[in-house]
Design a protein that fits this description.
The protein is of the alpha+beta class and 80 residues long. Helices cover 38% and strands 22% of the residues. It has one domain. A hairpin with a 2-residue loop joins strand 2 and strand 3.
Amino acid sequence: MDYGMIGKIEKAKRYAQERNRFLFEAFTVKINGENNSHSVKFTDNQWQCDCDFFQTRNVCTHTMALEEVLKGMLPAVEPA
C-alpha cells in the first residue's frame, strides 16, 4: 500500500473542502443552455459570454450561474 499517496488523497480532499484556497484567474466554460450552448470566459477579472443578452448588459444567466457555482473562489470582479 502506498501510504504517501493516501496522505496526498486526504490532503486533496481537505483542500477541496476549503474553498478559500482556490482563486480562479482565467478559464473558459461551455454551458449547455435550454436552447443553445454558450461559451463563457473569465479573464483579467472580467466575464465574457457569447450570448446576445450579455452583449448589451455585460451580465447574463450564464455568468451569474458560474458566479454562484464558484462563490468565494473568484477575485472581486471589476465593472466592465
